[in-house]
Amino acid sequence: MSRLTLHTAGSPHGHRASVMLEELGLEYVVHKLDYVGGVVRDPGYAKVSPLGKFPALEIDDADSLPHTLFGSGAILLHLALTTGKLLPGEPAARGEVLNWLNLVMTDLTPAVSGQFRFNVLAPDRFDYAIDFFAAEVRRCLAALDGRLASCPYLGGAEYSVADVAAFPFVDATAKGGSLKDGSMPHLARWYAEVGAREAVQRGMKVPA
Ligand SMILES: N[C@@H](CCC(=O)N[C@@H](CS)C(=O)NCC(=O)O)C(=O)O
Question: Coiled-coil segments, which residues (predicted)?
Answer without folding.
Answer: none
